[in-house]
Amino acid sequence: MIKGLLLDFYGTVVEDDDAIMQAIADQVAAGASTSVSGGDVLDAWARQYEAVAAGPQFRTLRDCAMRSLATVLTEVGCAGDPAELCRAQFTYWQSPPLRPGTREFLARATVPICVVSDVDRADLDAATAHHGLTFAAVVTSEDVRAYKPDRAMFARALAALDLGADEVLHVGDSLSADVRGAHAAGIPAAWINHRGHALPDDRTVEYELTDLTGLIGIIH
Hints:
This protein is α/β, with parallel strands linked by helices. It has two domains: 4-15 and 96-219, 3-Layer(aba) Sandwich (Rossmann fold), CATH 3.40.50.1000; 18-94, DNA polymerase, domain 1 (Orthogonal Bundle). The protein has helices at residues 18-30, 38-53, 61-76, 82-94, 102-108, 121-131, 141-144, 151-161, 175-184, 216-219, and strands at residues 4-7, 113-117, 137-140, 168-172, 189-192, 207-209. Helix 1 packs across helix 2. The protein starts with a strand and ends with a helix.
């Protein structure tokens, strides 16, 4: 029996920042001295971000975004300012649109919910306030000083709800951060597959959904 939910936020409760990141990458590509596409820049930015976030020193998400983009700017020969380029992304984090079905699901949810998000606390607080959302608990990467799939993120969420791993379901849109992270912590997972990707042969999920309304029948 599911007694509580752990919810990823960006890409699950609200829309992810894919379009904003692509626009930034296209801008960098347009100003590069080497021949690269926006897709090339986006891929390089993702790789560099993972390297920064996985480094020995914890850095906030904003710092990770700017440091990783700065490396890419150097690689492609673009003179842009990473802080200025990331400004639109940071603004978006504080007022992203809700994903389809979010309000309907939250209005009908009967179990306590803990948000588990790889974002800075101030940005998540601003986003929840923007939409008037309240949750039983909120855990951010900045609070824990770690990023999913680190088990510490899930442990903090379980403690916040005072529930065991077998009493909750974690819901998120990332196979690596959300599904793998939850499973490593002994928590079943629901995958929000809003991009229509195929599930890899080596990956299993307890539930595959397109939005949060798919949980209504599961938790009731």
